[in-house]
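Entry:
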Amino acid sequence: MGQPKKFRPMLWLFILLLLGIFLLIYMIGNSRWWKRKQYPMAYEDQIRKYASEYEVDPFLVVSVIWVESRFIPTAVSSKDARGLMQILPSTGEWVAEKIGLSGYSDEQLFEPEINIQIGCWYLGYLTSQFPDSRKLVLASYNGGIGNVNKWLSNKEYSPDGKQLDHIPFAETRSYVKKVTSVYEIYKEIYPSWKSRTIDE
């Protein structure tokens, strides 16, 4: 037996209601307001200050922070990387000496101001080593500059010795993709930020 005609308008109303709900979810999910909830801009003053001082792209800094710690200043990794930008104590000590931070201790990596200052300087240093490639900067930040230089000298990974066609570390490969994706989102939802960008 066929469906009684009196139920058909209710069926169409239900379908339209579902479509409306899906459309609303899609619009909210793609709105700048919603994306800013997912990708906040905490510690903006410190990021602007040290990104400018060490000549690094502030969008790169905030993207690294989001991927590394989700803005949790007390974050600690399994490798003992610490704070917002997940700085290893050995890296923190080396950078602190370079920039003249007197009385530095590893515990200061949990202080947002110090962590961002050290992280920005280090990103600036890596950018000076690879001024034309954000990909190499991020690969170095995650996998180590020594490994990146080794990969660049291997024709299996870098035919021209200048760019990496393949990153052999799966974690570093995933990290570069993730930060690059977040970088594009931050640029989209915070258009008023001035950025010093470098090519892929």
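The radius of gyration is 23 Å.
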